[in-house]
Amino acid sequence: MDFETGRDHRFRLRPEERLAREQGTVVKDWGGRLPIALVYPNSYYLGMSNLGIHALYRFLNNSEDIVAERVFWEPIRQDPSTSLRTGQSRPDRRDKRLGPLSVESQRPLPDFAVLAFSISYELDYFNIAPIFKSGGIPVFAAERDERHPLIIAGGPCVTANPAPLSPFFDCLCIGEAEPILPKLLPALSGGIGGPRDDLLKSLAGVPGIYVPQYAAPVQRQWTKNLDEFPVTSAVLTPDTELGDMYLMEVERGCHWRCQFCLVGTAFSPMRCRSLGKLLEMAKEGLKYRKRLGLVGPAVSDHLQLEELLVSLREMGAQFAVSSLRVSSLSDKTLEEIVRGGAETITIAPEAGSQRLREAIRKGICEEDILGAMAKIADLSVKQVKLYFMIGLPSETDDDIEEIINLTLKCKEIFEQRRSGTRLTLNIAPFVPKAGTSFQRFPAAQAKTLDERMARLKDRLMPEGIKLKMESPLWSEVQAVLSRGGSSVAKVLADIEKPSLSAWRRAVAKHGLDVDFYAHQEWGLEQKVPWEMVELR
Asked: Which among 22, 241, 260, 278 is most buried, taking Cβ atoms within 10 Å?
Protein backbone atom coordinates (compact mmCIF):
# COMPACT_ATOMS: atom_id res chain seq x y z
CA MET A 1 0.00 0.00 0.00
CA ASP A 2 1.18 3.53 -0.62
CA PHE A 3 -0.84 5.65 1.79
CA GLU A 4 0.64 8.91 3.04
CA THR A 5 0.85 9.11 6.82
CA GLY A 6 2.72 12.35 7.25
CA ARG A 7 4.94 11.17 10.12
CA ASP A 8 7.15 8.32 11.15
CA HIS A 9 6.61 6.35 14.36
CA ARG A 10 9.91 4.49 14.28
CA PHE A 11 10.58 5.08 17.95
CA ARG A 12 10.87 2.35 20.53
CA LEU A 13 8.61 1.92 23.53
CA ARG A 14 8.84 -0.47 26.41
CA PRO A 15 6.50 -3.47 25.85
CA GLU A 16 4.02 -2.40 28.53
CA GLU A 17 3.89 1.13 27.07
CA ARG A 18 3.28 -0.16 23.56
CA LEU A 19 0.55 -2.50 24.79
CA ALA A 20 -1.17 0.29 26.70
CA ARG A 21 -1.47 2.35 23.50
CA GLU A 22 -3.33 -0.42 21.65
CA GLN A 23 -7.09 -0.84 21.21
CA GLY A 24 -8.58 -4.27 20.47
CA THR A 25 -5.80 -6.39 21.97
CA VAL A 26 -6.93 -9.89 22.97
CA VAL A 27 -5.41 -11.24 26.18
CA LYS A 28 -6.45 -14.77 27.18
CA ASP A 29 -5.67 -17.18 29.96
CA TRP A 30 -3.46 -19.94 28.52
CA GLY A 31 -5.08 -22.67 30.58
CA GLY A 32 -6.49 -25.44 28.38
CA ARG A 33 -5.86 -23.54 25.15
CA LEU A 34 -3.54 -24.15 22.20
CA PRO A 35 -0.98 -21.29 22.26
CA ILE A 36 -0.07 -19.98 18.80
CA ALA A 37 2.52 -17.27 18.15
CA LEU A 38 1.60 -15.23 15.09
CA VAL A 39 5.03 -14.19 13.82
CA TYR A 40 5.67 -11.31 11.41
CA PRO A 41 9.38 -11.40 10.46
CA ASN A 42 9.84 -7.64 10.51
CA SER A 43 9.20 -4.72 12.83
CA TYR A 44 6.05 -3.95 14.79
CA TYR A 45 5.93 -0.61 12.99
CA LEU A 46 5.56 -2.32 9.61
CA GLY A 47 3.74 -5.46 10.68
CA MET A 48 0.86 -3.69 12.35
CA SER A 49 -0.06 -2.09 9.03
CA ASN A 50 -0.31 -5.53 7.40
CA LEU A 51 -3.97 -6.53 7.10
CA GLY A 52 -3.04 -10.20 6.90
CA ILE A 53 -1.75 -10.09 10.48
CA HIS A 54 -5.00 -8.48 11.64
CA ALA A 55 -7.14 -11.05 9.82
CA LEU A 56 -5.22 -13.99 11.29
CA TYR A 57 -5.20 -12.49 14.78
CA ARG A 58 -8.98 -12.05 14.74
CA PHE A 59 -9.67 -15.46 13.17
CA LEU A 60 -7.47 -17.37 15.62
CA ASN A 61 -8.67 -15.57 18.73
CA ASN A 62 -12.29 -16.05 17.74
CA SER A 63 -11.71 -19.70 18.66
CA GLU A 64 -12.28 -20.32 22.35
CA ASP A 65 -9.71 -23.15 22.32
CA ILE A 66 -6.85 -21.00 20.97
CA VAL A 67 -4.77 -18.18 22.37
CA ALA A 68 -2.95 -16.25 19.64
CA GLU A 69 -0.31 -13.65 20.43
CA ARG A 70 1.75 -11.49 18.07
CA VAL A 71 5.53 -11.61 17.72
CA PHE A 72 7.63 -9.20 15.66
CA TRP A 73 11.32 -9.10 14.78
CA GLU A 74 13.20 -6.02 15.91
CA PRO A 75 16.78 -5.41 17.01
CA ILE A 76 17.01 -6.02 20.74
CA ARG A 77 18.83 -3.30 22.60
CA GLN A 78 19.41 -2.56 26.24
CA ASP A 79 16.78 -0.31 27.80
CA PRO A 80 18.39 3.14 28.11
CA SER A 81 16.52 3.91 31.34
CA THR A 82 18.90 3.99 34.31
CA SER A 83 18.60 4.56 38.03
CA LEU A 84 20.03 7.92 39.10
CA ARG A 85 21.20 6.33 42.38
CA THR A 86 22.87 3.15 41.18
CA GLY A 87 23.43 3.74 37.48
CA GLN A 88 22.08 0.25 36.80
CA SER A 89 19.60 -0.48 34.04
CA ARG A 90 16.08 -1.43 34.96
CA PRO A 91 15.31 -5.09 34.21
CA ASP A 92 13.89 -5.58 30.72
CA ARG A 93 12.44 -8.88 29.52
CA ARG A 94 13.76 -8.14 26.04
CA ASP A 95 16.80 -10.23 26.94
CA LYS A 96 18.89 -11.45 24.02
CA ARG A 97 18.84 -14.92 25.54
CA LEU A 98 15.04 -14.99 25.26
CA GLY A 99 14.83 -13.79 21.66
CA PRO A 100 11.68 -12.05 20.45
CA LEU A 101 8.81 -11.95 22.93
CA SER A 102 5.07 -11.89 22.29
CA VAL A 103 3.33 -8.53 22.54
CA GLU A 104 0.47 -9.72 24.75
CA SER A 105 2.20 -11.72 27.51
CA GLN A 106 5.91 -11.18 26.80
CA ARG A 107 6.54 -14.90 26.41
CA PRO A 108 9.48 -16.31 24.38
CA LEU A 109 8.90 -18.45 21.29
CA PRO A 110 9.59 -21.87 22.87
CA ASP A 111 6.61 -21.32 25.22
CA PHE A 112 4.23 -21.67 22.27
CA ALA A 113 3.02 -24.94 20.78
CA VAL A 114 2.80 -23.48 17.26
CA LEU A 115 4.68 -20.69 15.52
CA ALA A 116 2.70 -19.36 12.54
CA PHE A 117 4.77 -17.08 10.28
CA SER A 118 3.01 -14.62 7.98
CA ILE A 119 5.49 -13.69 5.23
CA SER A 120 4.65 -11.02 2.68
CA TYR A 121 8.02 -10.11 1.14
CA GLU A 122 10.98 -12.16 -0.04
CA LEU A 123 13.56 -9.95 1.66
CA ASP A 124 11.99 -10.79 5.02
CA TYR A 125 13.36 -14.33 4.47
CA PHE A 126 16.62 -13.02 5.91
CA ASN A 127 15.00 -12.56 9.32
CA ILE A 128 13.68 -16.11 9.71
CA ALA A 129 16.89 -17.92 10.74
CA PRO A 130 17.87 -15.15 13.20
CA ILE A 131 14.42 -15.40 14.81
CA PHE A 132 14.88 -19.14 15.33
CA LYS A 133 18.44 -18.77 16.61
CA SER A 134 17.61 -15.97 19.03
CA GLY A 135 14.79 -18.07 20.46
CA GLY A 136 16.98 -21.15 20.89
CA ILE A 137 15.07 -23.10 18.23
CA PRO A 138 16.92 -25.25 15.64
CA VAL A 139 16.79 -23.53 12.25
CA PHE A 140 16.07 -26.59 10.13
CA ALA A 141 12.91 -28.65 10.53
CA ALA A 142 14.91 -31.89 10.32
CA GLU A 143 16.71 -30.89 13.54
CA ARG A 144 13.52 -30.37 15.55
CA ASP A 145 11.27 -32.83 17.36
CA GLU A 146 8.34 -32.94 19.81
CA ARG A 147 10.25 -30.73 22.27
CA HIS A 148 10.00 -27.80 19.85
CA PRO A 149 7.04 -25.82 18.54
CA LEU A 150 5.48 -26.89 15.24
CA ILE A 151 6.42 -24.16 12.78
CA ILE A 152 4.19 -23.09 9.87
CA ALA A 153 4.47 -20.38 7.21
CA GLY A 154 2.08 -18.71 4.81
CA GLY A 155 1.78 -15.61 2.67
CA PRO A 156 1.80 -14.60 -1.01
CA CYS A 157 5.44 -15.48 -1.75
CA VAL A 158 5.10 -18.77 0.13
CA THR A 159 2.05 -19.63 -1.95
CA ALA A 160 3.94 -18.94 -5.18
CA ASN A 161 7.15 -20.78 -4.27
CA PRO A 162 7.57 -22.54 -0.91
CA ALA A 163 10.85 -24.20 -1.95
CA PRO A 164 13.43 -21.68 -0.59
CA LEU A 165 11.86 -21.85 2.88
CA SER A 166 10.84 -25.50 2.89
CA PRO A 167 13.86 -26.73 4.94
CA PHE A 168 12.94 -24.27 7.72
CA PHE A 169 9.27 -25.12 8.18
CA ASP A 170 7.31 -28.22 9.16
CA CYS A 171 4.54 -27.21 6.76
CA LEU A 172 3.56 -24.30 4.54
CA CYS A 173 0.13 -22.90 3.65
CA ILE A 174 -0.61 -22.58 -0.06
CA GLY A 175 -3.38 -20.06 -0.59
CA GLU A 176 -5.68 -17.98 1.56
CA ALA A 177 -6.13 -18.56 5.27
CA GLU A 178 -9.93 -18.55 5.47
CA PRO A 179 -10.52 -21.94 3.77
CA ILE A 180 -7.38 -23.55 5.25
CA LEU A 181 -7.65 -22.73 8.97
CA PRO A 182 -10.98 -24.45 9.75
CA LYS A 183 -9.39 -27.81 8.84
CA LEU A 184 -5.86 -27.03 9.95
CA LEU A 185 -6.67 -25.99 13.52
CA PRO A 186 -8.44 -29.23 14.56
CA ALA A 187 -5.52 -31.22 13.14
CA LEU A 188 -3.11 -29.15 15.21
CA SER A 189 -5.17 -29.36 18.39
CA GLY A 190 -5.48 -33.14 18.06
CA GLY A 191 -1.86 -33.78 17.14
CA ILE A 192 0.23 -31.42 19.25
CA GLY A 193 1.92 -33.36 22.04
CA GLY A 194 1.97 -36.63 20.13
CA PRO A 195 4.61 -38.04 17.77
CA ARG A 196 5.76 -35.36 15.29
CA ASP A 197 5.62 -37.76 12.33
CA ASP A 198 1.99 -38.63 13.05
CA LEU A 199 1.10 -34.94 13.19
CA LEU A 200 2.86 -34.18 9.91
CA LYS A 201 1.07 -37.05 8.17
CA SER A 202 -2.23 -35.65 9.43
CA LEU A 203 -1.36 -32.13 8.24
CA ALA A 204 -0.35 -33.43 4.81
CA GLY A 205 -3.98 -34.47 4.34
CA VAL A 206 -5.32 -30.95 4.92
CA PRO A 207 -6.16 -29.15 1.63
CA GLY A 208 -3.71 -26.34 0.98
CA ILE A 209 -1.01 -27.65 3.35
CA TYR A 210 2.38 -28.52 1.88
CA VAL A 211 4.52 -30.77 4.09
CA PRO A 212 8.05 -30.81 2.57
CA GLN A 213 8.81 -34.16 4.20
CA TYR A 214 6.18 -35.80 2.00
CA ALA A 215 6.51 -33.47 -1.02
CA ALA A 216 3.06 -34.17 -2.43
CA PRO A 217 1.45 -31.73 -4.90
CA VAL A 218 -0.78 -29.16 -3.22
CA GLN A 219 -3.67 -27.14 -4.61
CA ARG A 220 -3.94 -23.44 -3.80
CA GLN A 221 -6.97 -22.63 -1.63
CA TRP A 222 -9.14 -19.52 -1.92
CA THR A 223 -12.36 -18.30 -0.40
CA LYS A 224 -15.35 -17.64 -2.63
CA ASN A 225 -17.37 -15.18 -0.54
CA LEU A 226 -15.39 -12.39 1.11
CA ASP A 227 -18.49 -11.12 2.91
CA GLU A 228 -18.28 -14.16 5.18
CA PHE A 229 -14.84 -13.05 6.43
CA PRO A 230 -14.60 -9.33 7.24
CA VAL A 231 -10.97 -8.25 7.06
CA THR A 232 -10.31 -5.02 8.94
CA SER A 233 -7.93 -3.63 11.53
CA ALA A 234 -8.20 -5.86 14.58
CA VAL A 235 -5.81 -3.93 16.83
CA LEU A 236 -5.46 -0.16 16.58
CA THR A 237 -2.22 1.55 17.54
CA PRO A 238 -0.63 4.91 16.72
CA ASP A 239 2.79 3.24 16.63
CA THR A 240 2.63 1.90 13.09
CA GLU A 241 3.02 3.06 9.51
CA LEU A 242 -0.71 3.52 8.95
CA GLY A 243 -1.62 4.23 12.56
CA ASP A 244 -4.03 7.05 11.73
CA MET A 245 -6.28 4.73 9.69
CA TYR A 246 -8.78 1.94 10.17
CA LEU A 247 -7.92 -0.49 7.36
CA MET A 248 -10.60 -2.47 5.54
CA GLU A 249 -10.24 -4.87 2.63
CA VAL A 250 -12.47 -3.83 -0.28
CA GLU A 251 -11.56 -6.55 -2.74
CA ARG A 252 -9.05 -9.34 -3.33
CA GLY A 253 -7.28 -10.34 -6.53
CA CYS A 254 -7.14 -8.64 -9.90
CA HIS A 255 -8.69 -9.65 -13.21
CA TRP A 256 -6.21 -7.80 -15.44
CA ARG A 257 -3.52 -10.48 -14.94
CA CYS A 258 -0.46 -8.39 -15.87
CA GLN A 259 2.30 -10.73 -16.99
CA PHE A 260 4.72 -9.81 -14.20
CA CYS A 261 2.28 -9.64 -11.28
CA LEU A 262 1.69 -12.38 -8.71
CA VAL A 263 -1.70 -11.03 -7.61
CA GLY A 264 -3.45 -12.26 -10.76
CA THR A 265 -2.53 -15.86 -9.99
CA ALA A 266 -1.97 -16.22 -6.23
CA PHE A 267 -5.17 -14.32 -5.43
CA SER A 268 -7.39 -15.18 -8.37
CA PRO A 269 -10.19 -14.80 -9.13
CA MET A 270 -10.93 -11.18 -8.31
CA ARG A 271 -13.61 -10.96 -5.62
CA CYS A 272 -15.32 -7.87 -4.20
CA ARG A 273 -17.10 -7.30 -0.94
CA SER A 274 -20.69 -6.12 -1.20
CA LEU A 275 -21.49 -2.46 -0.69
CA GLY A 276 -23.62 -3.31 2.33
CA LYS A 277 -20.82 -5.24 4.05
CA LEU A 278 -18.29 -2.49 3.32
CA LEU A 279 -20.53 0.17 4.85
CA GLU A 280 -21.05 -2.08 7.87
CA MET A 281 -17.26 -2.41 8.25
CA ALA A 282 -16.82 1.34 7.81
CA LYS A 283 -19.41 2.12 10.50
CA GLU A 284 -17.47 -0.03 12.94
CA GLY A 285 -14.17 1.55 11.92
CA LEU A 286 -15.40 5.10 12.45
CA LYS A 287 -15.73 4.30 16.15
CA TYR A 288 -11.93 4.23 16.27
CA ARG A 289 -10.57 6.36 13.43
CA LYS A 290 -11.89 9.18 11.29
CA ARG A 291 -9.77 8.04 8.36
CA LEU A 292 -10.39 4.75 6.55
CA GLY A 293 -7.83 2.91 4.42
CA LEU A 294 -9.51 1.09 1.51
CA VAL A 295 -7.26 -1.85 0.71
CA GLY A 296 -6.97 -4.16 -2.29
CA PRO A 297 -4.80 -4.58 -5.40
CA ALA A 298 -7.55 -3.30 -7.71
CA VAL A 299 -9.86 -1.14 -5.55
CA SER A 300 -10.76 1.16 -8.43
CA ASP A 301 -12.28 -1.84 -10.27
CA HIS A 302 -14.95 -2.36 -7.61
CA LEU A 303 -18.22 -1.92 -9.49
CA GLN A 304 -19.79 0.14 -6.70
CA LEU A 305 -16.74 2.16 -5.69
CA GLU A 306 -18.34 5.50 -6.52
CA GLU A 307 -21.38 4.70 -4.38
CA LEU A 308 -19.10 3.51 -1.59
CA LEU A 309 -17.05 6.70 -1.57
CA VAL A 310 -20.12 8.94 -1.58
CA SER A 311 -21.63 6.98 1.29
CA LEU A 312 -18.40 7.09 3.30
CA ARG A 313 -18.13 10.84 2.89
CA GLU A 314 -21.76 11.25 3.95
CA MET A 315 -20.90 9.22 7.06
CA GLY A 316 -18.22 11.80 7.86
CA ALA A 317 -15.27 9.61 6.93
CA GLN A 318 -12.01 10.58 5.37
CA PHE A 319 -10.36 7.87 3.30
CA ALA A 320 -7.39 6.82 1.22
CA VAL A 321 -7.40 4.23 -1.57
CA SER A 322 -4.46 1.85 -1.89
CA SER A 323 -4.58 1.37 -5.65
CA LEU A 324 -6.02 3.21 -8.63
CA ARG A 325 -6.18 2.13 -12.24
CA VAL A 326 -6.51 5.01 -14.69
CA SER A 327 -8.71 3.10 -17.15
CA SER A 328 -11.36 2.65 -14.43
CA LEU A 329 -11.05 6.11 -12.90
CA SER A 330 -14.18 8.18 -13.55
CA ASP A 331 -14.30 11.93 -12.90
CA LYS A 332 -16.77 11.38 -10.06
CA THR A 333 -14.66 8.67 -8.40
CA LEU A 334 -11.53 10.79 -8.50
CA GLU A 335 -13.42 13.80 -7.17
CA GLU A 336 -14.77 11.76 -4.26
CA ILE A 337 -11.30 10.42 -3.44
CA VAL A 338 -9.94 13.95 -3.23
CA ARG A 339 -12.95 15.21 -1.25
CA GLY A 340 -12.33 12.29 1.10
CA GLY A 341 -9.00 13.80 2.09
CA ALA A 342 -6.49 12.16 -0.28
CA GLU A 343 -3.43 14.34 -0.79
CA THR A 344 -1.48 11.83 -2.89
CA ILE A 345 -2.69 9.86 -5.91
CA THR A 346 -0.67 6.82 -6.98
CA ILE A 347 -0.84 5.43 -10.50
CA ALA A 348 1.25 2.63 -12.03
CA PRO A 349 1.86 2.95 -15.80
CA GLU A 350 4.68 0.36 -15.29
CA ALA A 351 6.17 1.09 -18.73
CA GLY A 352 6.70 4.22 -20.78
CA SER A 353 5.96 2.90 -24.26
CA GLN A 354 2.68 1.54 -25.53
CA ARG A 355 4.55 -1.40 -27.08
CA LEU A 356 5.90 -2.49 -23.71
CA ARG A 357 2.62 -1.84 -21.87
CA GLU A 358 0.95 -4.17 -24.35
CA ALA A 359 3.71 -6.75 -23.93
CA ILE A 360 3.10 -6.87 -20.17
CA ARG A 361 -0.70 -6.74 -20.66
CA LYS A 362 -1.10 -3.59 -18.60
CA GLY A 363 -4.28 -2.70 -20.45
CA ILE A 364 -3.88 1.10 -20.42
CA CYS A 365 -2.67 3.59 -23.01
CA GLU A 366 -1.01 6.99 -22.89
CA GLU A 367 -4.34 8.72 -23.43
CA ASP A 368 -5.65 7.06 -20.25
CA ILE A 369 -2.64 8.24 -18.26
CA LEU A 370 -2.61 11.82 -19.51
CA GLY A 371 -6.38 12.04 -19.14
CA ALA A 372 -6.04 11.03 -15.50
CA MET A 373 -3.29 13.64 -15.00
CA ALA A 374 -5.59 16.35 -16.36
CA LYS A 375 -8.36 15.33 -13.95
CA ILE A 376 -5.93 15.29 -11.05
CA ALA A 377 -4.54 18.71 -11.99
CA ASP A 378 -8.04 20.22 -12.02
CA LEU A 379 -8.56 18.96 -8.46
CA SER A 380 -5.21 20.41 -7.25
CA VAL A 381 -3.98 17.19 -5.67
CA LYS A 382 -0.74 17.84 -3.75
CA GLN A 383 1.27 14.90 -5.11
CA VAL A 384 1.13 12.26 -7.82
CA LYS A 385 3.29 9.14 -7.67
CA LEU A 386 3.99 7.23 -10.86
CA TYR A 387 5.29 3.66 -10.61
CA PHE A 388 7.50 2.31 -13.38
CA MET A 389 9.46 -0.91 -13.80
CA ILE A 390 12.74 -1.14 -15.67
CA GLY A 391 14.43 -4.25 -16.97
CA LEU A 392 11.18 -5.80 -18.20
CA PRO A 393 11.50 -8.55 -20.83
CA SER A 394 12.10 -7.05 -24.30
CA GLU A 395 12.83 -3.57 -22.86
CA THR A 396 15.21 -1.36 -24.88
CA ASP A 397 16.77 2.05 -24.41
CA ASP A 398 13.87 3.48 -26.42
CA ASP A 399 11.46 2.31 -23.72
CA ILE A 400 13.45 4.27 -21.12
CA GLU A 401 13.23 7.32 -23.34
CA GLU A 402 9.46 6.84 -23.42
CA ILE A 403 9.34 6.88 -19.60
CA ILE A 404 11.08 10.25 -19.75
CA ASN A 405 8.75 11.59 -22.44
CA LEU A 406 5.61 10.43 -20.62
CA THR A 407 6.78 11.91 -17.33
CA LEU A 408 7.54 15.27 -18.91
CA LYS A 409 4.10 15.31 -20.54
CA CYS A 410 2.54 14.75 -17.11
CA LYS A 411 4.64 17.57 -15.64
CA GLU A 412 3.60 19.88 -18.48
CA ILE A 413 -0.08 19.24 -17.71
CA PHE A 414 0.41 20.24 -14.08
CA GLU A 415 2.34 23.36 -15.07
CA GLN A 416 -0.19 24.47 -17.68
CA ARG A 417 -3.05 24.16 -15.20
CA ARG A 418 -1.05 25.73 -12.35
CA SER A 419 -2.14 22.92 -10.08
CA GLY A 420 0.92 22.99 -7.81
CA THR A 421 1.00 19.18 -7.96
CA ARG A 422 4.36 17.55 -7.17
CA LEU A 423 5.40 14.63 -9.34
CA THR A 424 7.36 11.68 -7.93
CA LEU A 425 8.58 8.59 -9.79
CA ASN A 426 9.13 5.27 -8.08
CA ILE A 427 11.40 3.05 -10.16
CA ALA A 428 11.72 -0.67 -9.41
CA PRO A 429 13.69 -3.27 -11.37
CA PHE A 430 11.67 -6.16 -12.79
CA VAL A 431 11.90 -9.27 -10.61
CA PRO A 432 10.62 -12.54 -12.13
CA LYS A 433 8.01 -13.97 -9.78
CA ALA A 434 7.18 -17.64 -9.45
CA GLY A 435 3.67 -18.38 -10.62
CA THR A 436 3.42 -15.49 -13.09
CA SER A 437 3.50 -15.50 -16.88
CA PHE A 438 7.02 -14.00 -16.73
CA GLN A 439 8.34 -16.58 -14.25
CA ARG A 440 10.81 -18.03 -16.77
CA PHE A 441 12.25 -14.70 -17.91
CA PRO A 442 15.52 -13.36 -16.45
CA ALA A 443 16.09 -10.24 -14.42
CA ALA A 444 18.28 -7.66 -16.14
CA GLN A 445 21.92 -7.38 -15.08
CA ALA A 446 22.71 -4.71 -12.48
CA LYS A 447 25.00 -2.85 -14.91
CA THR A 448 22.16 -2.42 -17.41
CA LEU A 449 19.76 -1.29 -14.68
CA ASP A 450 22.28 1.19 -13.27
CA GLU A 451 22.79 2.74 -16.71
CA ARG A 452 19.05 3.13 -17.26
CA MET A 453 18.49 4.55 -13.78
CA ALA A 454 21.30 7.07 -14.37
CA ARG A 455 19.65 8.13 -17.61
CA LEU A 456 16.34 8.73 -15.84
CA LYS A 457 18.05 10.75 -13.10
CA ASP A 458 20.03 12.86 -15.55
CA ARG A 459 16.96 13.77 -17.58
CA LEU A 460 14.26 14.11 -14.93
CA MET A 461 15.87 15.41 -11.74
CA PRO A 462 16.90 18.73 -13.37
CA GLU A 463 13.21 19.16 -14.21
CA GLY A 464 12.36 19.14 -10.51
CA ILE A 465 10.95 15.60 -10.55
CA LYS A 466 11.75 13.46 -7.53
CA LEU A 467 12.89 9.89 -8.17
CA LYS A 468 12.93 6.98 -5.73
CA MET A 469 14.79 3.95 -7.00
CA GLU A 470 15.13 0.44 -5.66
CA SER A 471 18.57 -1.11 -5.59
CA PRO A 472 19.39 -3.30 -8.61
CA LEU A 473 21.68 -5.44 -6.45
CA TRP A 474 18.97 -6.14 -3.89
CA SER A 475 16.54 -6.82 -6.73
CA GLU A 476 18.94 -9.51 -7.92
CA VAL A 477 18.79 -11.06 -4.44
CA GLN A 478 15.01 -10.87 -4.54
CA ALA A 479 14.98 -12.68 -7.89
CA VAL A 480 17.03 -15.54 -6.41
CA LEU A 481 14.64 -15.79 -3.44
CA SER A 482 11.63 -15.71 -5.76
CA ARG A 483 12.81 -18.42 -8.18
CA GLY A 484 15.12 -20.33 -5.86
CA GLY A 485 15.01 -23.92 -4.69
CA SER A 486 15.55 -25.48 -1.29
CA SER A 487 19.33 -24.92 -1.53
CA VAL A 488 18.69 -21.22 -0.86
CA ALA A 489 17.81 -22.05 2.76
CA LYS A 490 21.42 -22.98 3.60
CA VAL A 491 22.54 -19.56 2.39
CA LEU A 492 19.89 -17.76 4.43
CA ALA A 493 20.74 -19.79 7.53
CA ASP A 494 24.35 -18.51 7.42
CA ILE A 495 23.40 -14.82 7.45
CA GLU A 496 23.04 -13.13 10.83
CA LYS A 497 22.33 -9.59 9.62
CA PRO A 498 21.12 -8.87 6.08
CA SER A 499 23.69 -7.14 3.90
CA LEU A 500 24.96 -7.61 0.37
CA SER A 501 28.39 -8.55 1.66
CA ALA A 502 26.94 -11.19 4.00
CA TRP A 503 24.81 -12.52 1.13
CA ARG A 504 27.80 -12.82 -1.17
CA ARG A 505 29.89 -14.61 1.44
CA ALA A 506 27.13 -17.13 2.14
CA VAL A 507 26.47 -17.63 -1.59
CA ALA A 508 30.15 -18.34 -2.18
CA LYS A 509 30.37 -20.69 0.79
CA HIS A 510 27.46 -22.83 -0.39
CA GLY A 511 28.10 -22.54 -4.13
CA LEU A 512 24.68 -21.11 -4.98
CA ASP A 513 24.33 -20.29 -8.68
CA VAL A 514 22.94 -16.74 -8.54
CA ASP A 515 23.17 -16.28 -12.30
CA PHE A 516 21.00 -19.35 -12.91
CA TYR A 517 18.19 -18.21 -10.61
CA ALA A 518 18.30 -14.48 -11.36
CA HIS A 519 19.63 -13.92 -14.87
CA GLN A 520 19.03 -17.02 -16.99
CA GLU A 521 15.92 -17.51 -19.10
CA TRP A 522 14.38 -20.90 -18.44
CA GLY A 523 12.96 -22.92 -21.29
CA LEU A 524 9.78 -24.91 -20.95
CA GLU A 525 11.84 -28.07 -20.47
CA GLN A 526 13.38 -26.59 -17.29
CA LYS A 527 11.64 -27.85 -14.15
CA VAL A 528 10.79 -25.07 -11.71
CA PRO A 529 11.39 -25.45 -7.94
CA TRP A 530 7.71 -24.72 -7.24
CA GLU A 531 6.30 -27.49 -9.41
CA MET A 532 4.57 -28.99 -6.34
CA VAL A 533 2.20 -25.99 -6.25
CA GLU A 534 -0.98 -25.97 -8.33
CA LEU A 535 -1.84 -22.27 -8.41
CA ARG A 536 -4.72 -22.32 -10.88
From this structure: 278
